[in-house]
Amino acid sequence: MEVTIKYFSVFRALTNRVEENINLAAGATINDLLEYLVKEYGRKMEEMLFSRKKLKGYIRITINGKIVRNVQEYELHDQDNLYLIVALAGG
Length: 91
Prior knowledge:
By secondary structure, the chain is an alpha+beta fold. It has one domain (about 1-85): Roll (Ubiquitin-like (UB roll)), CATH 3.10.20. It has three helices and seven strands. Strands 2-1-7-5-6 form a five-stranded mixed beta sheet. The radius of gyration is 12 Å and the shape is globular.
């Protein structure tokens, strides 16, 4: 199956891409996609995404326009569109 991921903020700088089409096995989860990104882009990607093997709290992933909770176990589907975002807060 193929999914499209769009990068924002530091992820765009890290990958040097705006978006990317990625082929994954049927039944792949977001965690599988994140593992692919770490293999593809290395240690810096891992540091941006994870802390102690868990997705950092300020990372947001949307799928087909909806923010997904319990994100790592979410099963992906062919032609899903994902956004990889760093959530910002300010005041």
